[in-house]
TrEMBL record:
Domain of life: Bacteria
Source species of the chain: Streptomyces caatingaensis
Protein name per Swiss-Prot or TrEMBL: 3-oxoacyl-ACP synthase
Annotated ranges, domain Beta-ketoacyl-[acyl-carrier-protein] synthase III N-terminal: 108-182
Domain Beta-ketoacyl-[acyl-carrier-protein] synthase III C-terminal: 249-340
Cross-referenced PANTHER family: 3-OXOACYL-[ACYL-CARRIER-PROTEIN] SYNTHASE 3, BETA-KETOACYL-[ACYL-CARRIER-PROTEIN] SYNTHASE III
InterPro entries linked to this entry: ACP_syn_III_C, ACP_syn_III_N, Thiolase-like
Example GO molecular function: 3-oxoacyl-[acyl-carrier-protein] synthase activity
Length: 348
């Protein structure tokens, strides 16, 4: 989707204190060899605030930075990859009530770790409507400090980090112009994250719904599976990421060499390269690895956290192009290309 006159007016985050991975090894939460191979040095862990409360704190920062008033907003889009609150309850309206306090629509975008980039795309589409307001608030948050998930060992690709993140998408002004937002999928690979579990009734107990690693291993060892199926799946996903990035860059009207930086998912070092950076041909120095390795994989928030870090630390400035690169099960990849139009004010 090539966007026109759509801006990021505000960006914000909430990151709790970090727990060194070495401490997790000491406490028997993760194997020392796996921890070292990951390249991750620490993970953000929140023991008091809920996912939505962290999203609210991030939104307060983003709205303040945007200069928009509550009455400017047409909608709120909220997302999370893990538990947001009680069943038959609305997390988006909880965030809306504690941020804008406006009688506008609030909805949840459930698309795994790609959800905030997809929300950006939806927000841009909403703001092209003639009767739309001037802004849409996009929020995300996850807290993995629950019995429902083992943040340290559930996935072989990542350690799950707690966080909140927010964007104010505007058709009036901003610190960055959104040039394109695109996504592509390989739906025939959806069974990789489902294999071995029935769709109805639920097979896994409610206290442990996240069980990513064993499902992937079960898929690789399914009856009739070939010895190279996983390699072929990874290769196909890498091709998908490359195709998605190429489309996003083309719609933005720039080349890969025009990119100043890339804000990406907080995967472990090897899968980060094999699944995302290498297929697109992006050198690690352009990415946000040195920052994300101190955070972990913050689910929906990763690209937003990376962009905020680059902007607030002055690593990107006016005229720079930044690629936001995300991925999720399905399998699907997505990206956004933004051009920085204003440098960060240290006092903001």
């Amino acid at each position: 989707m090539k966007t026109g006159s759509i801006h990021l007016a505000g960006i914000g985050s909430y990151l709790p204190p970090t727990v060194p991975v070495a401490h997790a090894v000491r406490d028997g939460l993760i194997d020392a060899e796996a921890a070292e191979a990951s390249g991750i040095t620490s993970v953000t862990v929140e023991t008091a605030l809920s996912a939505t409360d962290m999203a609210v704190r991030a939104a307060e920062v983003a709205v303040r930075r945007s200069g928009h008033r509550p009455e400017d907003f047409a909608a709120l889009l909220h997302s999370g990859a893990h538990y947001q609150g009680p069943d038959s309850w609305s997390a988006p309206h909880h965030v809306l009530d504690r941020t804008l306090g406006r009688p506008v629509t609030a909805l949840e975008v459930r698309q795994g770790c790609l959800a905030m980039l997809t929300s950006l795309r939806l927000a841009a589409a909403l703001l092209t409507a003639e009767d739309a307001g001037d802004a849409v608030l996009v929020t995300g948050g996850d807290n993995f400090s629950t019995p429902r998930v083992d943040r340290w060992r559930d996935s072989e690709h990542a350690m799950y980090a707690d966080s909140g993140a927010a964007l104010v998408v505007s058709r009036v002004r901003g610190f960055a112009e959104v040039l394109s937002v695109v996504s592509r999928s390989v739906p025939e690979l959806e069974s990789m994250h489902r294999y071995g579990e029935p769709l109805l009734p639920p097979d896994r107990p409610a206290e442990r719904p996240l069980y990513v690693g064993p499902r992937l291993r079960a898929w690789a060892g399914r009856p009739g599976a070939g010895p190279h199926d996983m390699i072929e799946a990874v290769t196909r996903y890498g091709e998908l990421v490359a195709e998605t990035a190429a489309q996003g860059l083309a719609e933005a009207g720039i080349d890969r060499d025009d990119l100043a930086r890339v804000a990406h998912v907080g995967f472990h070092e090897d899968p980060l390269h094999s699944l995302l950076l290498d297929p697109v041909g992006i050198p690690a120095k352009l990415g946000t690895w040195e920052f994300m390795r101190t955070v972990g994989h913050a689910s929906v928030s990763d690209p937003v956290l990376g962009l905020e870090h680059l902007w607030t630390t002055g690593q990107v400035t006016e005229g720079d192009h930044v690629l936001l690169l995300g991925a999720t099960e399905g399998m699907e990849a997505g990206c956004a290309v933004v051009r920085i139009t204003a440098s960060h004010d240290a006092g903001a």
